[in-house]
Design a protein that fits this description.
The chain is an alpha/beta fold. It contains twelve helices and eleven strands. It has a single domain, classed as Arginase, Chain A (3-Layer(aba) Sandwich). Helix content is 34%, strand content 13%. β6, α8 (201-207) and β7 (213-220) form a beta-alpha-beta unit. The radius of gyration is 20 Å and the shape is globular. Bound molecules: ligand TV7 and zinc ion.
Amino acid sequence: PCHDDGGGTKQKNVCYYYDPRISYVDYGETHEMVPHRVSMTLALIKAYGLLDDMDRLRVAPATEEDLELAHDPEFIRFLRDLTPADYNADAKTQREAAEKYKLGEVWNELTHCVTNDNPVIENLWDYCQRYAGGSLAAARALASGRYKIAINWSGGMHHACKGKAGGFCYVNDIVVAIKALLDGGQFNRVLYLDIDAHHGDGVETAFMEDSRVLTVSFHQFGGEFFPRTGDAVDVGELPAGDDGVCPTLINVPLQAGTRDGRYHQLFGPIVDRVMAVFEPDAIVMQCGADSLAGDRLASLGLSVRGHAKCVSIVKGYGLPLLLLGGGGYTINHVASCWCYETAVAIGKEIPDDIPQHGYQNYYKSQGYKLHYHKEDSSSRKNRDMRSKDKITIDKVMNHLDR
Ligand code: TV7
Ligand code: ZN
């Protein structure tokens, strides 16, 4: 039966969180993370007329208490008080404390150079409060039972740890959101799926000893690719009574160059088995768009359809679903992908031609098409699993069968 809100329009199943202040955040001129991509995404969603099919809701900034669901209070207080002015005033103690939390310029032991993955930027605390506030509000919207799918493309910052920043992520909004889902009392088990090109290490670590959360990460692996963790042998399980075990984490390492065909030989079957074994009550999905073809940092080669197929497969299980952003460094590709995935969440087909709108020019290199093509190397060749993929799927399935 259709529910009616009294105004003659159908109740919406999808809610969307976007805070315009996030899009003005500047990681620095040469940094690859460009928060402006979330406002490009919204502009495209508007241009396609998708805003009428979901509720756009306000973001209440996450409080210190909210963020302490995932982080040490000392780290949170340090983040709150950290400003570029103080940091750059060269107060030695401030810089040393920052380095401890992986903030600002940090000496990297592996590469023997100074890195600035997590720069001390203007309005840093406000940024953290807002992107985490979006994910938290989205989690609460699902827990209330009012919405089936909640979206926060500004979230998905999967590398931040309890006591330190990492990989462009200052606070871990995903851990906050999952804890809120569990604390809400409606959900006993939450499945976390991560299709960002990088390993979801921060979320994995937060829940590796928690049998209520299973984390599953699909990511590029090998060589020096960040963060170098997440091999298929890195699994986790806890005793589950009656001599059984309960898996707590699964990793699906992928070789550079993995495109739609091989990706989906792994994704569908693994998620299907995970669903059967774990039987979650809700799903949190990190939809990092750096796994798309042509990304500036990663070397996986998903098409927009291939990436969105992951969302549509997961949506197909019909559980409350939290969709989050993450990486994605070729910003026109990112906006195309997240706009299309918003349409998938709503359940609407949208045309390939990018409608006339303010950011039109950004899409020139993709011929103003949503479904852009990146050097059309034969996708058939990529359909056959390599021996490494077969070993990976065997390891993952064996782990799930225990
Ligand atoms: C979720 N790759 C985050 C992914 C985080 C990746 C890294 C950079 C990078 C940082 C910059 C910059 C960059 C061109 C790319 C070991 C290093 C080697 C870079 C100087 N340009 C997500 C984090 C990753 C910062 N870090 O999963 C300022 O690339 O590989 C590393 C560490 C030290 C840093 N150097 C690379 O997608 C949101 N950083 C330019 C300016
Ligand atoms: Zn990434």
